[in-house]
Specification:
The chain is α/β, with parallel strands linked by helices. It has helices at 3-18, 31-39, 163-187; strands spanning 43-45, 51-53, 57-58, 85-88, 92-93, 107-108, 112-114, 130-131, 135-137, 151-152, 156-158. 26% of the residues lie in helices and 15% in strands.
Length: 195
């Protein structure tokens, strides 16, 4: 293979990689509508099909091309988010009728709002790991902090838990993780040479 062929192959490879499609979860008949919504955002698709967006993601308001829960796209965001989000530099506002947090970004630069008066959401599992400002979840069925973010730089607000409850839960979870890590190395001695 000569240098020109090699350069051409690398060019095609980079075009192929940049044209990667996001993994979509939702009704097939509205897939293209959600992709059109995504293409209006400043986004990146990762190798695993997850999506990062520079800016806000709102499934609650219909400004700047964003989906409104009352329009014909918002009605389809019920069981889970349409994409797996990896990083959102702005705020992330979940649909008001969502049933779980699967697909939520791992990193949210500003506020994360889910379950605003939502009687369907019953777990924080799937929440982001990091929230740069406030985490707000007013679902009346959230009765456990299991799955809550590791870091919330602002306030934690929910129906049954206060910010101090969340902070205590995170401290205890970190202590338990450290203790489990320390104990696991003590409980797994190196037995090489004892065959």
């Amino acid at each position: 293979m000569n240098n020109d062929q090699k350069l051409l192959e690398e060019c095609y490879q980079s075009i192929y990689e940049s044209a990667r499609e996001p993994e979509y979860f939702g009704p097939s008949h509205v897939r293209q509508d959600f992709l059109n919504w995504l293409y209006k955002q400043d986004f990146e698709v990762h190798e695993d099909g997850s999506v990062s967006i520079d800016g806000d993601v709102s499934f609650m308001h219909n400004n700047r091309g964003e989906v409104d829960p009352w329009d014909n796209l918002g009605q389809y965001i019920v069981s889970r988010l349409p994409f797996n989000f990896r990083k959102v530099t702005g705020g992330f506002y979940c649909p008001s009728r969502i049933m779980n947090l699967k697909g939520s970004p791992r990193y949210v630069g500003r506020d994360f709002i889910c379950g605003s008066d939502n009687p369907n959401l019953n777990s924080l599992i799937g929440s982001p790991d990091y929230v740069g400002r406030d985490f707000w979840c007013q679902s009346s069925k959230i009765i456990s902090l299991e799955g809550a973010p590791e870091v919330i730089k602002g306030d934690f607000e929910s129906t049954y838990f206060e910010d101090k409850d969340y902070r205590k839960f995170v401290r205890e979870r970190k202590i338990k993780q450290k203790l489990n890590k320390d104990l696991s190395s003590d409980l797994n001695p190196d037995l090489t040479g004892f065959e």
